[in-house]
Amino acid sequence: MSVSMALMSSLSAPNLQCLSYQPHPQPFPKTHFSFPVLNPKRAAFGSVWVPHAVADGGSPVAVEKKEADVEGNGSPPVVAAVREGGEEEVKKFEDGRWVGGTWDLKKFKKDGKVDWDAVIDAEVRRRKSLEINPETSSNDDPVLFDTSIIPWWAWMKRFHLPEAELLNGRVAMVGFFMAYFVDSLTGVGLVDQMGNFFCKTLLFVAVAGVLLVRKNEDIETLKKLIDETTFYDNQWQATWQDETKKE
Amino acid sequence: MASTSVSLKSFTGLRQTSPEKPHFPTAVSVCNGSGRRSVIVASRTSPKLAGRNLRVAVIGGGPAGGSAAETLSKGGVETFLIERKLDNCKPCGGAIPLCMVGEFDLPLDIIDRRVTKMKMISPSNVAVDIGQTLKPHEYIGMVRREVLDSYMRTRAAENGATVINGLFLKMDMPKERNGSYVLHYTEYDGGKGGGVGEKKVLEVDAVIGADGANSRVAKSIDAGDYDYAIAFQERIKIPDDKMVYYENLAEMYVGDDVSPDFYGWVFPKCDHVAVGTGTVTHKGDIKKFQLATRNRAKDKILGGKIIRVEAHPIPEHPRPRRLSGRVALVGDAAGYVTKCSGEGIYFAAKSGRMCAEAIVEGSENGKRMIDESDLRKYLEKWDKTYWPTYKVLDILQKVFYRSNPAREAFVEMCADEYVQKMTFDSYLYKTVVPGNPLDDLKLAVNTIGSLVRANALRKEMEKITL
Known about the structure:
The complex is a heterodimer.
Chain A: H1 2-7, H2 40-44, E1 78-84, E2 88-94, E3 98-99, E4 102-103, E5 109-110, E6 113-114, H3 116-132, H4 152-186, H5 190-195, H6 197-212, H7 218-246
Antiparallel strand pairs in A: 1-2, 3-4, 5-6
Helix pairs in contact in A: 4-6
Chain B: E1 55-59, H1 63-74, E2 78-83, E3 95-96, H2 98-103, E4 111-115, E5 117-121, E6 127-130, E7 140-143, H3 145-158, E8 162-172, E9 181-187, E10 198-204, E11 206-209, H4 216-220, E12 228-237, H5 240-245, E13 249-253, E14 264-268, E15 273-279, H6 286-296, H7 298-301, E16 305-315, E17 323-324, E18 327-329, H8 331-334, H9 345-362, H10 372-400, H11 404-414, H12 417-429, H13 437-463
Parallel strand pairs in B: 1-2, 1-11, 2-8, 5-13, 11-18
Antiparallel strand pairs in B: 3-7, 4-7, 5-6, 8-9, 9-10, 12-15, 12-16, 13-14, 14-15, 17-18
Helix pairs in contact in B: 1-3, 1-9, 9-10, 11-13
């Protein structure tokens, strides 16, 4: 029963991450600037990125994955250094399979079918590269890729199923042990436990707990999320409280 | 049961500095000098004013002040509009919805440009054009604030308001129940707002505080503070061939590099573009975010020259107390800027008008004295009309601006025609039109799908190192 309930959990793990606190906003100085600055380009793009070592024809640096081998025409993603105006080195994301602003699926063929895992890997590398080195958006080569071209079962197989297996395993272990424990304490067997309202509640709590709390930090994150849903209302409450006090 | 795999990282915009429970500014208990309290007296029993009309001062001559002054003077109230700088170029995005043109009878020549296309650009530079569902007569108007503000003030003056070029200093509370407020201000000559002015005094029965985010009126009535964002903007003159691209197109850039809790923008103005960004939580890094925004638009603004740099605070939510005695706040002074889009001009003008209408009604066209209950009616009406809008935009911001995967999903969703239609309908006309429930369901499923995919990709991203 617990296993079937866990199986019904639809999507893969919420990644309950939490970053550290941020400093309180400083009071804003009243003046606002209005000085003209000529030739912004020199000043603006002064940050020089240290060029990475270029992966030379070997397999991608990606972590061990079942289908890590990029087959077909796939040349491993090469991060090229482009000289711009002789001033800074700007790296642009380049990959042989990235054609016309989207992934060319013909280049991902494995045994005649598109290797979706490789597409996912390639997109992950692209996004990572852009996160580290944001690039200018351009009208000449717009990015048109939409993740929905990757079929739903590819996502399921890669992301949902391993997580679901993990969670089902956890619930099964917890369920088995709790059933044994309750049986040993009260003498109520498994079938009779299922009929009891209290036991059903415990079952629900166990499943919800396993679904929501996947790492230790998740408990804190959940509390913060609950605060967050009511934060804006609280900000408005202050003004409504003022009104009710008057009445 | 359907646990969404929205990345449940807590939203940047709401992190507290200290681990204690957040302390929200609560209304300070009022100690009114005259000592009156508890029972709200209806305006009908307010005394008729003998021999004069109700006098109301509007502090601040922006959209809120201008529209309030116009409505007041049309309603027969003696109005004084006090503005410190008549040629002020308020740093502003400058976008007004279509409905504002109609509702406030704005002439079409104060609109510099009609934006009919918007481009949303995700952290990985996926660019989506929205605006395909706009009808030919629909657009977002881009205005210059100095032009708009001056027009509205002039119109108020034409309707009988007295425009005073002065800087409001402080206000003395009334000594008795129907006493007047005494305003101390410095009057300037020549409308420039600098130099030495004369100290003057003005006695009025009611005050509307429309003096913006750093409102002095708000300080005088102890209105409390709000959280605010900093919006930083550079006006850049770009070569003509690049300007053609921005003829009627505005761009929105989202990403952690551009802003952790807001967006970066490129808005076309009369003959240049405004490139800017904003943030609530990382105000110290605003210059870094601005650099990143310029970097993302680099190809399109190449060769541009910065002609002006400006910044301004933007309120995130209303002040705890928007009204005290016969003093009410409107516009940015009250904190009526929406989340997610940061729109404030329309709400400022509308709140100014609503407050003025409440005064006109409560005073029966200026014949009676008003009291606090009349102004409360404006607050109730405002909250009832626009609270859902604010709430929905807050939810959108919390869901879609919280992390890069969420932003990627946001941009992906914007490619959908139904989303575009709903977005523009609600933005341009400020009404929420209920859509087709089947389409809504499809939209919900697609949204969740996008969020799931983007978060799954992000988890993979964390595992690899380039």
